[in-house]
Amino acid sequence: MFVSGTPAAILHADLDSFYASVEQRDDPSLRGRPVIVGGGVVLAASYEAKAFGVRTAMGGRQAHALCPHAIVVPPRMSAYSAASDAVFEVFRDTTPLVEPVSVDEAFLDVSGLGRVSGTPVQIGARLRERVRDEVGLPITVGIARTKFLAKVASQEAKPDGLLLVPPDRELAFLHPLPVRRLWGVGAKTADKLRAHGIETVADVAELSETTLGSLVGGAMGRQLFALSHNVDRRRVVTGRRRRSVGAQRALGRSGSSLSAAEIDAVVVNLVDRITRRMRASDRTGRTVVLRLRFGDFTRVTRSHTMARATASTEAILAAARRLVADAGPLIAERGLTLVGFAVSNIDRDGAQQLELPFADADCRDSLPIDLAIDQVRGRYGTSALTRGVLLGRDPGLEMPMLPD
Known about the structure:
The protein is of the alpha+beta class. The chain has helices spanning 18-26, 47-50, 60-66, 77-94, 114-117, 120-135, 147-157, 170-174, 187-195, 201-205, 209-216, 218-228, 260-280, 313-326, 328-334, 367-380, and strands at 10-15, 35-37, 44-45, 71-73, 98-102, 105-109, 139-144, 162-164, 245-250, 285-294, 299-310, 336-344, 398-399.
């Protein structure tokens, strides 16, 4: 529970239009111009493109209609990963209390650094300057007593800004904001609230928890009641362990015309990447999770739990293919725009159930082969060996998944 003397010492640092900013940094001719990363689906848009209504995850055709003079560039995931690593080095050099949220944002707790580093505002300003000078990217920082309010502050300060919410001005800052600023309030929940005349955070704060629960459900009602009064007891947590290993690929509108063989190639490619990462980090898992997004932006999730934990590509691929086959009617009906997989129920020690060699050829353990392939790829590159089903095919763009 926060007391009156608790300082505003939680920072939410969020890179501005991350992918697009990296492209503008690396190609000076793009600076000040509308830039879209990704063709079939917008992976990122510069603020110049956003001014015309272009948004992340929007279809490429719609984005072009809104901003026909935008410059479309292909994504470069290795460049974004390197930039993210460099930014997080600055974060961790600022304070050891860093909680990653995604590749381009994190919470930092700078309480207790006053004597050596200055006030939270001074720390935030210096962090922004270092990211600009050392990595070449704009970043926005929000500062508040709670994680929730620090994130709201960074949203309000974008782009390329810094905003402190003083403890004695929290509700004065929060209450005039639109209800969408509350965590968990998407378009549908906002529409429900708007139908009852609830437009701002202040409108939410005037209602009881019971009344909110009757409008949006008990759990959501409790959350909105707490957040509208800036009650958020979560601390900045470091070293949070990933509970799954995953990857996903955006297909764009062309996904609806993919054949079963083409979809299977995407599945093989993603599972191959996931299992290679699992073996590299000595992890095994039991549950395979399929995530699909369709042309109408609806999503579905399916999962299958295997009898034992494994990092075998063949075993996980077999489970993944079964999940895709079971979802076949939905894919045919709605049109596929994104495929993702994750392996959960992770054993971080890489433990596997040993078995006597009684299995037939169809059930033979492929892990020794996987490990040999990993060694070849580690020495000669990932393209040194590839699966036959992927020959001549575009491996496609893998979109980073947020850690669980």
